[in-house]
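Shape matters. Shown next:

___
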Amino acid sequence: MSRRTGKPSYLVAASDTRRRSKARLAVIVAAIGLAAVLVGGATGYTASRPDGVESAVADMRKAEVERDTQQVAELTTTARRLRDEISPILGAIREAPSDGGQPGPEQARQWRQTLLRAAEPFANPPSGTTATNVARAGLKGAVEQASLAVESYLLAVTGPPAQRGALTELAKRQAAQAVAAWSVAATQLDQVNIDTGQGHQHVYLDAGPGGGAFTPDGAAEGSGG
């Protein structure tokens, strides 16, 4: 029998070389595919993740909303306290007889001290949103107008009798203007309470007949927030 002969060695070597080349190519292709998957995933995560600037802006806006909500609540509390102190004073001035001396000088001086204390919360106001600042400034202006009414009335009951009637009428007009100015600020305060989710808050002075002051709407307290 003749001996079987295999492939020549150079053919075997060439075949092994081709198999190793195909294997290396498969490994390279798999590695490229894996890298593409990793890069694509990382790109998608980066694209969907808010960057540092967006996150900082969101934090600032949240802090501003929280600050304004607190300021509105504090301003409303202050307005309620001042309303209870100022409303009786303005009512008494508007009802005072032009030819009499009651309430007298001592009472007027007590009113003056009350109005001086009422102005204190507005001496160093915090920085807030424009809407809140408008409400605060309106209340401050109304307190100042009420103070003028008290000063005019004090002059009426301490000055010459011949000027009493004219000064008392001046004080009455100033008291009516103070109520009207307060009503504008109270309307703004009501709105910022709604805007900050705290609902209607009606902090109005007793307007009395005439005067042209705004009055509370018919909404229930705390509704609409």
Remarks:
- Confidence is low (pLDDT under 50) at residues 1-15.
- The chain is about 70% helix and 0% strand.
- The radius of gyration is 40 Å.
